Amino acid sequence: MKSPAATLPPSIRGPVAGFLSWLLPGAGHLFIGERVRGIILIVVITLTFWTGVAIGGVKNTVNPEQRWLWFLGQICAGGHTLATLAISHNIPSPPPGLETTRIAYGREEEISVVYTAICGMLNILIIFDVLVRAEHPTVPATSPAPPRAPKAGGS
Fold this sequence. Notes:
Low-confidence stretches: none
Order of helices and strands: HHHHHHHH
Helix content: 55-70%
Number of domains: 1
Number of helices: 8
Shape: elongated
Number of strands: 0
Radius of gyration: 23 Å
Oligomer: single chain
Structural class: mainly alpha
Distance between the termini: 47 Å
C-alpha cells in the first residue's frame, strides 16, 4: 500500500510531514510510509511525555508563565503540550492553603519538567529526520537473483 505522501511532490511532502511530526511525534513518519519507525516514535515520546505529566501534575508541569525557558523545549512536543495546556486551563486552581495537596513540588516537579522538555527536544530531531526522509524517499531494494553455480559434469 502506498503512503499518502507518495503522490505529493517533495516541496509539499516535506513541510506536511514536518508539521505532522510536530503535532504528534512520529505521525510524519507514518505519513511518508515508515510505519514501524512512526509507531515506535509515537509510543516512546507519548509515554515519556505523559509519564512526566503524571509525575508532576497537569497544572504544574507545563507552565509557560513560571517556566518559559522550559516551555520553549516543551512546545516542540506539539500536540502533547497543547493538550496539557488545554487540560490545565480547564482544571480550577486549588483554594489557598491546599496547593501542596494537588500540585507537586520538589524533585517530582523537576523530573516532570525535564521529562516533558526532553520529549520536545527529541521531537526536533524527529522533525529533522522526517524532513530528510520525505525529501529523499528510499526505494525498496529488490534483491537480485542469486548467482547460479556452474553445472558439474562438463557438457
